Each structure stands twice: as structure tokens, then as C-alpha cells.
Amino acid sequence: MKKRIVLFLVIVMVIGVVTTGCGESKPTLNVYNWGDYIDPDVLDMFEEEYGVKVVYDTYATNEDLYVKLKQGGSSYDVIFPSDYMIERMIRENLLAEIDITNMDQIAKVDDTFMNLDYDPDNKFSVPYMWGTVGIIYNKTMVSRPLTKWADLWDEEFSGDIIMLNSQRDTIAVALKKLGYSLNTRNIAELEAARDELISQKSLVYAYLGDEVKDVIVGEEAAIAVVWSGDAVSMIRENPDLEYVMPEEGTNLWFDAMVVPNNAKNKEDAQKFINFMTRPDIAALNADYIGYSSPIPEAVELLPDEIKNSVVGYPTEDMLANTEIFKDPQDILSEYDRIWTEITSAQ
Amino acid sequence: MVEKSMKRLYTFLIFLFLYAPIIVLIVFSFNDSRSRGVWNGFTLKWYFELFKDREILRALYYTLFIAISSSIISTIIGTFAAIGIYGMNGFGKKLVLNLNYLPVLNPDIVTAVALMTLFRLAQLEFGLLTLLLAHVTFCIPYVVLSILPKLKQMNKHLAEAAMDLGATPFYALRKVIIPEIMPGIITGALLAFTLSIDDFVISFFTTGHGVSNLSITIFAMARRGINPVINALSTLMFITLLVLLLIINKRTEKNDKNLQERR
Amino acid sequence: MKIRNTGYPYYIWLAIFIAIPLILVLYFAFTTGDSQNLGTFSFSLNNFKRFFTPIYLTVLYKSVSLALVSTVICLGLGYPIAYIISREKPRIRNVMVLLFVIPMWMNFLLRTYAWLTLLGKNGIINYIITKIGFQPLDLIYNDTAVLLGMVYNFLPFMVLPIFSVLTKMNFNLVEAAEDLGANKKVTFLKVILPLSLPGIITGITMVFIPAVSTFVISSLLGGNKSTLIGNLIEQQFRYTMDWHFGSAMSIILMVFILIAMALTSKFDKEKEGEGGGLW
User: Fold this and answer.
1) Contact C239 A63 (CB under 8 A)
2) What is the DSSP string of A237-267?
3) Nearest-neighbour CA in chain A from B163: distance (Å)
4) Per-residue pLDDT tens digits for A5-62
5) Shortest distance, CA A55 to any CA of chain B (angstroms)
6) Could you say which of A50, A129, A279, C51 is the most buried, measured as most Cβ atoms within 10 Å of its Cβ?
7) Which residue of C has its CA nearest to B7?
């Protein structure tokens, strides 16, 4: 009996080894993306069309992604960093140049999203999604509409506020509340932001990532700081929710697809990026995850209530008071120190 | 009488406490809604989706593969190690025993970052290999610690007697020592398997792209709203476990009964 | 024993995978520089100095107090149930132990996560409570939830060692004490408790150590509001890449635990013979 069990286990192991070995017949593409940031069917469609096996992994923040990349030991072929992170990665020579002239779908991207500051000639990146950061709140659970970041420090909402568990976004909220730039290099300003966030802690329900969606939709808390795409998804599930871009100004962000330097399959990476830029595919993604696509033809394909909503597609003057993140460069360690102090404070 | 019913009540409450989350998981595996709070009707669809969900199936595969491989490897190395340690004396023995005890004593996060530092410095690519190495490393101590007591209980002179009668050391090992310590070996192997299958922290720090075990996948999913498919998976796992353990229990009972009847 | 020392493969393994990593951690702890670039390291006590400031010491204090409280609760809840199970007839006892152990085999992350459904503002517990007519309780994303998570996850580790010792105990001693006129309280304090001490010590160690170093429970159930030392260490290795600071904290944590263990082993002289006190 025992011998048979051992034999069985050995067979399982051998099968295991063999099947992982056999996987090598098809080329593999390692994709590393934000959690909940793609329509899963899209991966199947890519696999079928191009005969490439996609290995898909997810991360929660840009810093997560950066650390995984920097610490080495893992190689990915396509990743989706945000503006400032791309800036940093280019500066540190972590990215491979891509050839957009070879991508026939690149013309579909609206000009306003090309040649942005973080990658002036799009030598490294192709835009994926964009959006803003704002406050979402449940109209039926609060006594008055929220309009400013300062509202998040209002005692009246104690225990109902969810902040983002993300270093730059949360520090930015405090900086904006104090009237500073969210790209400030002034340590005193950063420390003032830190003190604000520490004083806010007693009012905060939790610091969450993607789980904020469940919590707000389920009405366990009334207010949260969220990215615009998540707001779109949440409002779809709970119409009592309202999204607002605060008066003090907020962050305008762009996520783009890039190819790391140590990617093993750069060729299929470029094909994947091109594929994702196809309007029908971009529309599938934008509809599934709720975020805003930089491809006008894709936007056309979206349901009316999304494309006509200013939540996902704000007007130009709404975007006037926004800032794009820049890479903090040498004072990054100050940001890290301050974030550690914020999270450690009781 | 009051005491007896209080005991019953207390026992019931404790077991309720232990099983509450499991019951929740099972019940919500039939819930026709993605959200974890709202009940929307009965459905079996998550069970069907489970067999289509690549990420989870891959994680399950890696979890089982690593658990089986690391328990086999660590049991083999651990058994030989325990026998070797048993024969040692003095400072060397103390040193080895203390080093062996370290992964047991250390919080797993310290073991995890220590291993991560090692792998990074050795410029290893994080993935299946580093994960396996890490698991074997934290499993072997438990195997050793399960076998040592059995070695102590064993009659030292049996092996010597066998060799005096002409057996080679290796034969003595195989036919005399190992059968004597077999219960310890089995306990060690089972312990290693259990620890490996449920491990999160050490795996989290020592694995690389694509290779996730079940715990890591669940942790990642917990951050974004759990996929109810996991509830279906846990229900299936629970039922399998229950059946397995009940079978084992029945067999050991039968064994005991047989032994008793023979007397 | 005339058999050659078969342990050599393992001794080498120990050196490579246990001894060297810890030395590396020590090395990182006492240096600063870009943690990805060995060449930039220079000796420094800064990491430790940085830790011994109010903001981080509070984190350590919080981790230790939460761990202590959960250990005490586990002991308080666990001892009675261990006792009750150990006094049952073998057949029932085996079933009960089985039922006790099965949840441990289920993935602990999953079970912890399931508590969110139970503890949420609109969760199952509050649903029942409000139906009865009480005010909803604040059970999630706070220290209560973290404590509950700790107790839930580590209770079996307290119960099983105590149970193991109690079953091996000679109950004739208890009868003898009662024959000699001792009442229940005295019997318990003077006979049962001292005899079960080894199990209690093992249980305390097996609960306290993971409790003080966990980051999963505080992350899933604590809403990331209370950073524990486990979270701090994780943060340094996964977000800020300050491996030096992270290593220093790991060393501090290790030293702390060693001191705690040394203190508890004063109560239990025969630890070495137990082979670690595993069940």
C-alpha cells in the first residue's frame, strides 16, 4: 500500500515535470499588469491569433512593479507602469526601445496622448489607459456633497473614509490639500503632508487597494479616494455613488505598455502591444475595467453611459487644474521614509 | 449536570468559532454574485468556472508539485541527517541541532528575507527552483525533529547486533534502523507536506514570475475582491480533506480493533 | 554507532541555506548603501539608530502587546478545550481531534479572508446582531479584527501541545490527590497545571512567535491602519528596497524572540529532551 502511494506520487511529479517541459513548444509571453486591469478574454484572443502562450501576473502599485523589476530574478516581456514610473525606468535604463513604426495600430491613439513628457518620442511606451484621481462618495450616506480634499479631514465623516494604500497618490492628496504641488521637492512641504496624513489617521476606515470597490459598493464605508476607472465600475454597480475631482486640483495619470530590457520575448511583446492598441480590443478592455482609453475609435464602441460620463471622460476645463506625476529622482528615499513614517504612526 | 452542559456548550462554541469562516466559504461558493456580502441565489457556476480559471489551476498545480517534491526531498535528507546527528557528540552536535532549530524558531518573515537575500546575491533567477529550495530548507528541520525522538527510543544495540551478525552498515540501516524510526519518518513527511502546502510568507519572498502557489494567488486576489471561484476550490478541498481524514481514521480504528481482537 | 555519519549532505545544506543567509542579514543590518549594489556598502549603525526612535518603537510595542494579548486569549480559550477533549473516551477524542485539525489544513489566508465577510459592517455577525436589536459592532479594520484573526489562526497551536501533554499525563495522580482530600481547585493548581506546564510552554511559544511577526493578518484584517513590525519589514523588502533597514529590524525581531524564549525556558527544564516539543 505504501509502495503504491510512493509510486503514485512519483508519477504525479514526473507528469508535472514533463508537462511544464512540454510547454516550451509554443513561445511564451510574460505579462505583468495591474490587478483587474484587463479583460481576461483578451488574453485568450491573443493566444489564439498569434499562437503564443501568455503567462499573466499582477501587481498592486507602481512601486511593487519597480521593486520586482529592479531586484531582478524575474523577467517580464510587457509591463504597464504609470507616467512617473516610466520616466524613472527610462532614466535607469530598465526599458528596451520599441519600434512604433512597426505597429500598425499606433495611429489609432489620439495625438494628445502621444509624445508626453515622460517619453517624448514614444521610444519606449504606447499608451494603454488614462484617468484621474478623485473622491467617490455615497450620496445617501453623507449629509452634503464633497468637493475638496479638505473634506476628507472633516470630523463629520469619521470612520467612513477610505484612503488609497499607495505612496504617491496618498501623499499627493495631502500635498494638494495644503496647496502644494504634488511633485514638490521641498522636504518641509512633504513633512507637512506627512503630518496632515498622520492627523487624519483616526478618521480613516482603512487604507485599501482594489478591495475598495467591494467595500464602497457594499456600502460599508461612504467615502473613498479612487482612480477614475474604478469609480466608473463602482457607479455601474451602485448608482448612489458620485465621483468628484476636488477643487484643490488633482492628479492626471497615464498608464502605458513598455518592454523591460531583460525581456526574453521582445518580438511577441511588440505584437502584444500592437494587439492591445486595436480599437476593438481596447474597447473590450475599457468596458471591462471601466478605465478610459486613449483610442477614440475604441471610445466610440463603448456604451453611452460610460463614454458620455465626465467621470471617465472629463472635459478639458475639468482637466485644467491637474498635475501629472514626475519622478522624484534623488529625493525618492525621502518619499519612502515619509511613507514609512505615515504607515507606522498609530 | 450543569457542568456537563457547560462543557458541551463551550466545546460547541469553540468548534463554531473554528468552522465559522469555513461555513461562510462553503455557503458563498454557491452564491450567485461576485460580491462577498450579498446573497443572490443558488448557483453551481463557480465550480464550472474553477476548472476554466487558468491562474488558480496553475497555482494549485504548483502548490501540489512543490508540496510533494519538497516533502519527499526533505524527508530523505532529513532522515539521513537525523541518523547522522544521533551519532554525533559534543560541540558539533549542539551546533547542528541549534542551526537546525533556527527555521523552526525564527519567524517566517526573517527566514524568508534571509533566503531572498541569499538568492539575490547568488544572482539566481527567482522561480520554481528558488521556491523549491526555500521549501526544502524550512521542511527538513521538522523532519529531523520528528525522527530524533524515535531514534532516542530505539534500542541502540540493535544496529550493532545486526552488524556483528554480518550485516553491512547499509543493510543495517535499511532493515533495522529505518523500520524502527518509520513512524517518525512518516510524521516528518506529513508535517513537511502540511507546512509546504499552506506556506505563504516564505513562498512570497522566494518565488518569481509565473510561479505562484495557492496562498500567494489568494493574497493577491484578496487585494482586489476575491474571485468566488476560490470559494468553490476551498469547498472541494475541504470535502476532500474530510473524506481523506475520515478514511484514515477508520483504518487506524480497524487496525486497533484487529490488534485488540488478536489478543 | 559504527555507521558513517550520514548527515553530511544536510550539514552542507545547513551552512548554505541557514547559516549564510543569516550572516548576510546581519551584514546588511550593519551597513548602508544601495541595497542592490554590494559595492556601495559601508559600515553603519544608522539602521538601528533609526529604529530606536519613538515612531518605530511604538510599532514594536504594538506588535508585542497584540501578540501577548492574543497569546493570553489563546491560552484562556485553549486550555479548557484541550482539557475537555483529553478527558473524553478515545473514540470520541480521536474524532474531536480530527475535527479540530481539519480547519488547519484549509488554507489560512482563505479562512482569514472569510472573516471579512463575517466581520464587515454589513457582515453576517452584524446582520445577526442588528436583527436581535443591538447596534452594529465595529469589528473590522481595527485592532479587534487583528486580534481575532490572530486568535483564530493560532488557537490550534496552543491547544494541540497542551492536549498532547494532558493525554500522556497519569490521571491516577489526580485521583490520588482527590482521595487525599484536595478539592477541584487545589487539584488543578497543584497537580494538573504543573504537569501540563511543558505543553503550555510549547503552546505559548508556538503562538507568540508567529503572532509577533505576522504581517498577513494585520494587512488583511487591519485595513493597513496598524503597522506591525512584520509589516514594516515586509515594506522595506518589497516597497522601499531599503534592505538594510529591513535586515536591522529582522535582527531586532530575532533577538527579541530569543530573549522571550530564554525567559520561558526557565520554566521548563526538560526542553532539550522533548525534541522541540512537537506533538
Assistant:
1) yes
2) H-TTEEEE--TT-EEEEEEEEE-BTT-S-HH
3) 27
4) 666 666 666 665 555 544 456 888 999 998 889 998 999 999 999 999 998 888 888 8
5) 6
6) A129
7) C84
